[in-house]
Amino acid sequence: MKEFIIAAADDGRKLEKWLIREMPAVGMGMRQKLYRQKCFRLNGAHVKGDARLSKGDVLQIYASDALFEKPRREDPFLSKIQPRLSILYEDENLLLADKRPGLMAHPDAHEKVNTLITHVQAYLYQKGAYDPAAPDAFAPALCNRLDRFTGGIEIIAKTGEAMRILNQKIRDREIGKFYYCIALGRFSRAEGTLDNYIVKSPEAKKVSVSPRMVPNSQRAQTRYRVLAHRDGLSLVECELLTGRTHQIRAQMAYSGHPLLGDNQYGDRRQNEAYGRSAQALYAYRLRFAFRSDAGPLNALTGREFVAPDVRFLSEYFPEYAP
Q1: Pick from 61, 39, 40, 62: which is nearest to 51 by CA?
Q2: What is the pTM of this model?
Q3: Using one digit for the tens of pLDDT, what is the confidence trace for 238-285?
Q4: Cα–Cα–Cα angle for 174, 193, 236, nearest 5°?
């Protein structure tokens, strides 16, 4: 049994017309059968389709739950996309996807289909977990965003509550984000923290680094550890302590060790000598280190996820490849 309170907009409407709108899966023959079986009660009295409704009336319908389901109008865009995702983890609150290098995170003026968030939306839509036409629909949203040519683990919130919690946990440094990168040259210190300021200009497509706070700057901190060195290259693990635009790429270049393949912040001629044209940077590991209550995400506390395939490792440092 389901109970409805008649709204002011339906004052004076016949029950039959109300049912056609609210129970579109129920045809005329089924409605007549329900009338005969006295399945409708209006303010406690049995009624048929010609009964007039009034604002505030209590309508009770004794019928199978399946009859109340409204057919979903097919989304012509999301229904036709063939999702291509590498999903590392999924529950009712979030999804972790391993984004391949070269894939954009969000659509832009030139690419609408082949983006991570579009593939996530199509995947969830086609399995019935997301309907953009629903009045209370929450569009899946990225909680961290990787550059187009940076691969690795992306966190996608599936609910508004999950997005709020995840964004706060990231700000509070309760989610550890670890990267592999290959940098040019040999570091003077095997480990340390890059601590300076990222300056972002609205007109420029790249950021700059300053040793001190200046207008439009944000503090950037990256903890690094050199794992290996070979042929003029260093394999480095980085942990983001802050999350600024192009943080690792800009800070590494500022320190004198631009990333292999990064023509925007590094040296194109050096990259060409190594035969690489895209930055060797991968968000390979994610750790949920919640120190405070995470609500529906508490089950993730202490869990860690690792990307199964970082391809540039196999090419340059195969002993570290999975």
Answers
A1: 40
A2: 0.78
A3: 999 999 999 999 999 999 999 999 999 998 999 999 999 899 999 999
A4: 90
For residue 205, the model assigns a pLDDT of: 84
CA 229 – CA 303 distance, rounded (Å): 30
143-154 pLDDT, tens digit each: 998 999 999 999
Q: Are 67 and 25 in contact (CB under 8 A)?
A: yes
| C-alpha to C-alpha distance for 240 and 283, rounded to whole angstroms | 10
Catalytic residue among 57, 98, 147, 262: 147
pLDDT of residue 211: 96
Q: Are 12 and 52 in contact (CB under 8 A)?
A: yes
Nearest alpha-carbon partner for 79 in 131, 40, 25, 116: 131
> How far is residue 289 from each of residues 24, 78, 169, 179, 293, measured CA to CA in Å?
48, 35, 9, 17, 11
Using alpha carbons, list the distances in angstroms from residue 163 to 103, 132, 171. 22, 17, 12
Tokens representing residue 68 in the block: 């109340």
Cα-to-chain-centroid distance, residue 271? 32
Q: What are the structure tokens assigned to 254, written together?
A: 């500022």
* pLDDT tens readout for residues 30-51: 999 999 999 999 999 999 999 9
Give the Å distances, CA to CA, from 195 to 213, 225, 226, 254. Answer: 11, 14, 17, 11
Q: Among this protein's residues, is 147 annotated catalytic? A: yes
